[in-house]
Design the sequence.
């Protein structure tokens, strides 16, 4: 059967946003997909009409037992996982000082530790076949720490650094890695899914407080199109040499480019100070 030759995608967080649109496009291509959500009834319609190519599963990525069960079910059904898309996660906003420990730890459990565990569960199969592609949905915030989003940025920075290491470890084994770094997109990230600790310290009103308000107010009118983002993700998986970093959206591309240029300029400006910290050469 042709479906047995098509790539197998495993996508986390398919109930809305990028995961939902990507799952629809993958299945529309005639490929196979494991579509997951904490409650699989929320993704049942994605599988409808594609029962031979779609598998809907319950998956909370903070639950190690569910991760193991989901990967085993996927491999039992389709034999392999070719593309893993670590999309599940959410945003948390607060000023640094007002961040709440429970919220911060929950953010890292989902955005970082859950993503790590999910990938570890899939890697043995990819390594055995010497083939696979891991897409980690990070963010422009994985490169730039914006006021009000420090803890979210920290979670995405963690995934970025980890992905660099995974890419180097996976390259000799045929495993590719890409960080997908969206700017503002018209998803639920800034709406229903966003968690915030209100800014009450007036000293942060013009920084964290202002940005938090702007994020909430702009929900639903962002320039980024999730469908076009999903198309870009599919495009890179068909490339022989996919990028390690793919920034999405004009705002994001400009913001990241400007940040990296400024960082390089700063490194060069302080080059002599940095070089002088080595032991003197004999």
Sequence:
């Amino acid at each position: 059967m042709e479906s047995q030759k098509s790539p197998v995608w495993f996508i986390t967080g398919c109930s809305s946003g990028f995961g939902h649109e990507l799952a629809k496009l993958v299945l529309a291509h005639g490929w196979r997909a494991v579509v997951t959500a904490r409650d699989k009834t929320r993704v049942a319609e994605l599988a409808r009409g594609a029962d031979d190519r779609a598998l809907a599963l319950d998956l909370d990525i903070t639950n190690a037992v569910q991760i193991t069960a989901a990967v085993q079910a996927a491999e039992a059904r389709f034999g392999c996982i070719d593309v893993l898309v670590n999309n599940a996660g959410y945003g948390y906003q607060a000023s640094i000082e007002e961040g709440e420990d429970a919220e911060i730890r929950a953010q890292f459990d989902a955005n970082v530790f859950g993503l790590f565990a999910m990938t570890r569960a899939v890697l043995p199969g990819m390594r055995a076949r010497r083939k696979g592609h891991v897409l980690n949905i990070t963010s422009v915030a994985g490169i730039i720490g914006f006021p009000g989003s420090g803890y979210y940025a920290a979670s995405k920075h963690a995934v970025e650094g980890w992905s660099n290491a995974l890419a180097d470890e996976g390259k000799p084994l045929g495993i590719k890695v890409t960080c997908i770094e969206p700017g503002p997109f018209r998803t639920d990230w800034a709406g229903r899914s966003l968690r915030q600790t209100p800014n009450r310290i007036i000293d942060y009103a013009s920084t964290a407080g202002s940005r938090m308000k702007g994020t909430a107010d702009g929900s639903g009118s962002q320039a980024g199109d999730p469908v076009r983002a999903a198309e870009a993700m599919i495009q890179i998986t068909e490339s022989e040499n996919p990028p390690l970093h793919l920034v999405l959206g004009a705002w994001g591309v400009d913001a990241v480019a400007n940040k990296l240029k400024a960082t390089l300029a700063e490194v060069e400006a302080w080059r002599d100070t940095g070089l002088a910290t080595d032991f003197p050469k004999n």
User: Anything to note?
Assistant: The longest helix spans residues 101-129. The CA atoms of residues 21 and 227 lie 6 Å apart. The first strand starts at residue 8 and ends at 11.
